Automatic annotation (TrEMBL):
InterPro entries: JmjC_dom. Residues 99-243 form the JmjC domain. This is JmjC domain-containing protein. It comes from Asticcacaulis biprosthecium C19.
Length: 317
């Protein structure tokens, strides 16, 4: 029995095109309300990330990281329902045996159908509030976005120089910055727009920029990031290009630089990583708000932090 509904065409173009699949996980007992609360309770609290965001999905600077000390699973779920937050449980496949087994099953199926072997798989569970959003960004690995509950509108953009610069993507590969990118509403004329529903999975070519806006309901999704040998090669080329630009003042281009140089770049990236990796301009997440079990959904901003406020114009948009 398979989890994903494949055709010959989708198996052939997996990881290379924007593809919507149907899957059978939306009704899995692993993601029922009670199961999610129990999972939140046993998940390592230091790995759980909680964010809130502003009201303009075009702004990537309105994304804040928070503390969730003392919040039990039920408190977090109540907070998601009542508030404006985005919970990210990273690498649940490493933290939970049942989800780990599911993730192994997914990648065994991917290998069987596509011949592609996944490396460094990271199954992230996203539990997010009605109308929450994630601004325009790109991810270095390949991604499968599985929708379990709720509907989210996904804008997916082409992987080309009109949508981000070489220096920007290298900065993400080097973890010099987070994944966010400057957004221009004019980009939308070339976007694929899809309302992702329970029982659907969306995947796209490596590094395709995207942004996501939830419908007016709680959303539960799996964001599964992974590498293939080819994707890891590409990620290391981006990493090396970043080093060549920052350390040697060169101006490499991932689209235009000669392929013949790539093996040397892989060596450069591996040596740099073996010596601890690129160290400049890191931007670690700094919390700026807290949650309180007694006040579900409320974002308690730190002193001096300006709260996000919904304006009528933004709501209308
Ligand atoms: Fe993403």
């Amino acid at each position: 029995m398979t989890l994903i509904h494949w055709t010959d065409d989708t198996a052939k173009t997996f990881g290379k095109s924007n593809l919507v699949f149907h899957h059978d996980l939306a009704d899995s007992h692993l993601f029922s309300e009670d199961a999610l609360i129990a999972l939140l309770d046993r998940y390592p609290p230091e790995s759980l990330e909680v964010f809130t965001m502003g009201f303009d999905p075009g702004r990537s600077d309105e994304w804040r990281f928070g503390r969730h000390k003392g919040m039990r699973g039920a408190d977090l779920m109540a907070g998601v329902k009542a508030g404006r937050m985005w919970l990210n449980l990273r690498k649940v496949n490493h933290a939970d045996a049942e989800v780990g087994a599911l993730c192994d099953q997914i990648f065994a199926e991917v290998r069987e159908k596509t011949g592609q072997t996944a490396l460094k798989s990271d199954l992230g569970l996203l539990i997010s509030s009605p109308n929450a959003h994630v601004a325009y960004h790109l991810d270095i690995p390949l991604v499968m976005l599985w929708q379990i509950r709720g509907i989210k509108r996904v804008h997916l953009y082409p992987v080309d120089a009109d949508f981000f610069t070489d220096a920007q993507i290298e900065g993400i590969a080097l973890r010099e910055s987070d994944e966010s990118l400057p957004y221009d509403p004019a980009f939308d004329s070339r976007a694929l727009i899809h309302d992702l529903k329970p029982g659907e999975m969306l995947t796209w070519p490596q590094n395709a920029p995207h942004r996501i806006v939830n419908g007016d309901m709680v959303n539960v999704s799996l964001s599964i990031e992974f590498m293939t040998p080819q994707a890891l090669w590409h990620a290391n080329v981006l990493y090396a290009n970043g080093l060549l630009r920052r350390w040697f003042g060169l101006n490499p281009s991932v689209a235009k630089s000669p392929k013949i140089l790539e093996p040397f770049k892989i060596v450069l990236a591996r040596i740099a990583k073996a010596f601890g990796g690129f160290k400049g301009n890191k931007s670690p997440l700094v919390p700026s708000f807290s949650l309180d079990p007694a006040r579900p959904g409320e974002i308690i901003y730190d002193d001096g932090v300006k709260p996000f406020v919904a304006t009528e114009t933004k709501r209308a948009a």
